């Protein structure tokens, strides 16, 4: 497919030569290794572990890091990688984002130098896979004040008790970052729990209609003992948790662009092949209108994400800027995948035509990492100076 039909304004040219090579390797890997198998895994709700070695060889974990296990800060490349993965499969993009963004990001932003050296290089090589445990059964959007998982100091150890829900990668992760409330100070602290820790159990969440390839878990922590050396030394309050979410929220905006782009590309290819009334439907005015609206949505969203990534690379992005990108891009994504399904008519609900998978997966991207409503309130508070939270 010609580049100009997707990257309409040549945003990829903003990357330098080395970065474009990395992006092209990701594109080729996703087309060669993921695209042929992903629909089958989506139907069976299984994870394609066979692609992990190839994913590791891409060297994309920790791209936005300037510490151990990373390189120079390259948020623009990191974002475009998330987009490239999501345009083939949003689940693989989510798996990568949880590991590289949320788990590695927690350690990079909140871990001591010793902890960063201990965990991040192995995670960058995918020798240890990470998960991020914040959301709880009764605390999603209200996690800042409603977190109920507790951490109680006992000598040189901490005892963790509580539950977590919707935790991606957690059924098989080697390291899971758990956020818990200090029983004494009421502040939110971060801990790295290793796979197999006594009292740490995971149950896969099934019967999902979106991101079926992602292995989400319900975690139970029953007297899990974690040494003080595994408490993230720089995590002292929920503000530190928020620093991680600010970084990764931009990545989710890029994933939304990729999800929309994938649906658009399949719809465009379909329009060029499908015939009705004796001609290709690509020549119908209403079809071209849908395609141009999809292209406009993806292009505008990508351009917004480019500037956000530049702000990240400069270290000056704000919570509100990240929230606006996440809210805007996911709304435009939802509209775009709907247009793609509309273009395909009845065929749009068949997985053989791919678009239905993007329509379903978009629903999860629309909600995680802050709902549209919560992100809107963050931006609203910034521009009015008045908090409208409950």
UniProtKB/TrEMBL annotation:
UniProt keyword terms in alphabetical order: FAD, Flavoprotein, Oxidoreductase
Cofactor or coenzyme needed: FAD
PROSITE patterns membership: ACYL_COA_DH_2
Acyl-CoA oxidase/dehydrogenase middle domain mapped to chain residues: 131-224
Annotated Acyl-CoA dehydrogenase/oxidase C-terminal domain residues: 244-383
Acyl-CoA dehydrogenase/oxidase N-terminal domain sequence ranges: 18-125
InterPro entries per the UniProt record, alphabetical: ACX4-like, Acyl-CoA_DH_CS, Acyl-CoA_Oxase/DH_mid-dom, Acyl-CoA_Oxase/DH_mid-dom_sf, AcylCo_DH-like_C, AcylCo_DH/oxidase_C, AcylCoA_DH/ox_N, AcylCoA_DH/ox_N_sf
Keyword presence, Oxidoreductase: yes
Family, similarity comment: Belongs to the acyl-CoA dehydrogenase family.
UniProt protein name: Acyl-CoA dehydrogenase family protein
Organism: Pedococcus ginsenosidimutans
């Amino acid at each position: 497919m010609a580049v100009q039909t997707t990257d309409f304004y040549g945003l990829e040219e903003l990357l330098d030569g080395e970065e474009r090579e990395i992006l092209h390797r990701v594109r080729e890997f996703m087309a060669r290794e993921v695209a042929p198998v992903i629909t089958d895994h989506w139907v069976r709700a299984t994870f394609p572990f066979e692609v992990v070695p190839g994913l590791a060889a891409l060297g994309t974990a920790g791209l936005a890091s300037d510490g151990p296990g990373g390189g120079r800060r390259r948020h623009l490349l990191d974002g475009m990688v998330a987009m490239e993965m999501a345009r083939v499969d949003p689940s693989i993009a989510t798996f990568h984002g949880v590991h590289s963004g949320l788990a590695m990001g927690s350690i990079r932003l909140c871990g001591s130098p010793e902890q960063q050296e201990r965990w991040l290089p192995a995670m960058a090589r995918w020798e240890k896979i990470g998960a991020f445990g914040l959301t709880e059964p009764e605390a999603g959007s209200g996690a800042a004040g409603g977190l109920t998982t507790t951490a109680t100091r006992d000598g040189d150890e901490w005892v963790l008790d509580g539950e977590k829900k919707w935790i991606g990668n957690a059924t098989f992760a080697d390291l899971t970052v758990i956020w818990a409330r200090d029983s004494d100070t009421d502040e939110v602290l971060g801990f790295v729990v290793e796979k197999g820790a006594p009292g740490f159990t995971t149950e896969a969440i099934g019967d999902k209609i979106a991101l079926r390839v992602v292995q989400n878990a319900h975690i139970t922590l029953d007297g899990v003992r974690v040494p003080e050396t595994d408490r993230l030394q720089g995590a002292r309050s929920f503000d530190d948790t928020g620093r991680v979410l600010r970084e990764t929220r931009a990545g989710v905006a890029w994933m939304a662009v990729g999800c929309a782009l994938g649906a658009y590309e399949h719809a465009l290819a379909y329009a060029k092949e499908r015939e009705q009334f004796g001609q290709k439907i690509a020549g119908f005015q209403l079809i071209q209108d849908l395609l141009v609206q999809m292209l406009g949505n993806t292009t505008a969203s990508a351009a917004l994400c480019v500037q956000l990534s530049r702000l990240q690379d400069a270290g000056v992005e704000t919570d509100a800027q990240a929230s606006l990108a996440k809210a805007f891009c996911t709304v435009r994504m939802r509209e775009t995948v709907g247009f793609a399904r509309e273009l395909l008519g009845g065929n749009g609900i068949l997985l053989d035509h791919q678009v239905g998978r993007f329509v379903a997966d978009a629903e999860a991207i629309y909600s995680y990492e802050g709902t549209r409503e919560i992100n809107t309130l963050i931006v609203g508070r910034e521009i009015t100076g008045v908090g409208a939270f409950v």
